[in-house]
Amino acid sequence: MGFYEKHIVPHVVNCACGTKPITYQRKKVVPMAEGVVLEIGIGTGHNLPFYDASKVTKLIGLDPSEESWKMAGERARALPFPVEFIGLPGEDIPLDDKSVDSVLVTFALCTIPDPVKALEGMRRVLKPGGKLIFCEHGAAPDADVLKWQNRVNPVWKVLFGGCHINRNMPEIIRAGGFRIDDLQQMYLPSTPRIAGFNVWGMAQGA
Predict the structure, then answer these.
(1) pLDDT above 50 (res 10)
(2) 108: Cβ contacts below 8 Å, ≥ 6 apart
(3) Nearest CA among 20, 162, 33, 9 for reference residue 104
(4) CB burial class (10 A; 0-12, 13-18, 19+) of residue 125?
(5) Contact of 73 with 85, CB cutoff 8 Å
(6) Measured between alpha carbons, how far is 79 from 161 in angstroms, rounded to an integer?
(7) Coil, strand or helix: which one is 52?
């Protein structure tokens, strides 16, 4: 990992993921998490203020970036429930089968190299009846916007640590073995359309 990826990208992503429209989306989905929660790509901890402490017994934050962990750890100290940070030593989530009640993934599937395999891992660690809560940006439904997403994506990935702006998130979630029970979508206000198409909702293992 080079200097830019290690020291610059976490701060760039931290700023980009903390805009008002994205923060508003976080407020919609994060409170749905309950029980033992696994947050995929916890990053610098933008979701931490929005958990419902009355419903969460433990939070496990998974992220490959050590620099992000340090920033997230500062935000976690005041939480009333235990928070555990774990790395990603390989391609598999280092947790037992059927060990968590909720999996939360926000603005992370865009960056994971193999999102379908990652989702299969999330399904593996979910208890029967557990839920996947997601909020992601991705491929726009408008052909003109999607055309520009495809053009910009190669440069975008370099600037934003591997983030893709043209992934079809509902298709990817279904390919990972989930049934989407609730799906909502919109262009976020005050956000460039090539990066502003947002999908969010809830899914269970199919």
Answers:
(1) no
(2) 40, 41, 43, 136
(3) 33
(4) buried
(5) yes
(6) 28
(7) coil
- pLDDT score recorded for residue 88: 76
Global pTM value: 0.89
Residues 6+ apart with CB under 8 A from 33: 39, 51, 52, 55, 56, 102, 104, 133
Q: CB under 8 Å to 129, separation ≥6 — which residues?
A: 204
Taking CA atoms, 121 is separated from 12, 54, 148, 154, in Å, by 28, 27, 32, 27
CA distances from 161 to 92, 96, 120 (A): 20, 29, 23
Write the Ramachandran bin of 45: left for phi over 0, alpha for psi from -120 to 50, otherwise beta.
Answer: left
pLDDT above 90 coverage of the chain, percent = 70
**Structure tokens, 161:** 């640590």
- Please give the CATH architecture assigned to the domain spanning 3-205: 3-Layer(aba) Sandwich (3.40)
CA 65 to chain centre: 14
- Cα 59 to its chain centre, rounded Å, is 14
Q: Are 204 and 129 in contact (CB under 8 A)?
A: yes
